[in-house]
Amino acid sequence: MSNTEYLYGKNPTELAALCGELGLPRFAAGQIARWLYRRHVEEPRRMSDLPAAARERLAERFAPALAAPERTSVSADGTKKYLYRTLRGAYIESAYIPDGERATLCVSSQAGCRMGCAFCATGRQGLNHSLSAAEILNQIVSLPERDRLTNLVFMGMGEPLDNADNVLRALEILTSDWGWGWSPTRITLSTAGIAPQLPRLLESTRVHLAVSLHNPFPEERAAIMPVERAYPIREVAELLRRYDFTHQRRISFEYIVLSGLNDTPRHIRELCRLLNGIKCRINLIRFHKIPGSPFFSPGDDAMIRFRDTLTAKGIQTTIRASRGEDIQAACGLLSTEAAAPHANGRGPAR
Ligand code: SF4
After folding, report:
1. Which of 93, 94, 120, 124 to mutate to test the pocket of ligand 1 (most atoms within 8 A of CB)?
2. If we measure between CA atoms, which residue out of 192, 201, 127 comes closest to residue 166?
3. What's the CATH number of domain 12-61, 1.20.120, 1.10.150, 2.20.110, 1.10.1760?
4. For the chain, which terminal residue's Cβ has fewer other Cβ atoms within 10 angstroms, N or C?
5. Is the per-residue pLDDT at 213 higher than 70?
6. Does the beta carbon of 115 sit less than 6 angstroms from any atom of ligand 1?
7. Distance CA 143, CA 215 (A)
8. Start-end ranges of CATH 3.20.20.70 in the chain?
9. pLDDT band at 324 (very low <50, low <70, confident <90, very high)
10. Gyration radius from the chain CA atoms
């Protein structure tokens, strides 16, 4: 790994220490933060309210971290998939999903993923590296449609809580007054359920939470999500029961429906038992075929019946619209294996 230093991604404490080193007053840290996170300028020579000598020293010391996407794919439904090169030379993808007044960016937190979920193209690729806060934020700053964005979902490549330090830093920059100033209610983080990191996320942020569930039975879930063996969903549900999801913060459970494997009456009964006492919603997701996978999505009628049965049992259930399937941007399809053939670290997390 290189020793190159980047200014983008630093928090006020680090910027204040830097200002101390440069002999600048403390308030200069706020000025730098404003350039970085409000004006989206990382080139120190353009920070016109800093003394010229300090600008020069910053420019000599820090390399640029922000870079435009290298490739764009456009779906017939308007979704766009962007390919970004990371600072370490790997590749990641983000999906921009316009929908009327709303425009959502699906952000990646890792180049690849080591969780090994059987239904996911990113999981097959293995982990190349976790993204720094700057690499996470670059997907947003350098997005051509940045100013149209209304929502962010951390549902792209990678498991965000397998990179908790950098993801939490990115969230802090996004939601702080000294940072981008976004409301946390515009952000959702999706996790496979990395239990040790959940309290930290829930106590240090107010973002919405989505938990990838996909099967309520431990053995069946472990067969498609190896993370179940390290952090059983029953323990995750127990932990979540201790938090309040009624005020401003929402929790949803994501459920890729696999025909005949997780959509039977037995699964419905167990889902009700598992989620009892958690004020939540279930988001049903169509399975998008990846080469060689043995799974199938049920037809639309069966999806609707499954949704209606769960709703009748008292769990608010919705079906997520599939977007960008024709450009491999839909749920579970993001992969940069072709762009980064040397990804390593393949296999389940633990
Ligand atoms: S579904 Fe998410 S956690 Fe599972 S392998 Fe894919 S990216 Fe990783």
Report:
1. 120
2. 201
3. 1.10.150
4. N
5. yes
6. yes
7. 35
8. 71-327
9. confident
10. 21
Alpha-carbon distance of 226 to 100, in angstroms, equals 37
* 329 Cβ below 6 A of ligand 1: no
pLDDT digit string, tens, across residues 263-318: 999 999 999 999 999 999 999 999 988 888 899 999 999 999 999 999 999 999 99
Which of 115, 236, 346 to mutate for ligand 1's pocket (most ligand atoms within 8 Å of CB)? 115
Is residue 93 flagged as an active site residue? yes
Please give the Cα distance from 84 to 139 (Å, whole number): 7
Mean pLDDT of 22-46: 96
pLDDT in tens, 179-195: 999 999 999 999 999 99
Give the number of the atom of ligand 1 that is nearest the alpha carbon of residue 116: 5
Q: Is 166 in the pocket of ligand 1 (CB under 6 A)?
A: no
Provide φ and ψ at 94, rounded to 5°.
-130, 150
CA–centroid distance, 166 to ligand 1, in Å, is 18
Query: What's the CATH number for 71-327?
Result: 3.20.20.70
347: left (phi over 0), alpha (psi -120 to 50) or beta: left
The boundaries of every CATH 1.10.150 domain in the chain are 12-61
Is the CB of 113 within 6 Å of ligand 1?
Answer: yes
Q: What share of the chain is helix, strand, coil (3-state, %, to 5)?
A: 35, 20, 45
The three-class DSSP label of residue 116 is coil
Q: Is 123 in the pocket of ligand 1 (CB under 6 A)?
A: yes
Q: Read off the pLDDT of residues 5-32 as tens digits, 9 standing for 90 and up.
A: 999 999 999 999 999 999 999 899 999 9
Out of 19, 42, 93, 159, the active site residue is 93
What is this structure's pTM? 0.93
Respond yes or no: is residue 337 known to be catalytic. Answer: no
In this prediction, residue 346 has a pLDDT band, given cuts at 50, 70 and 90, of very low
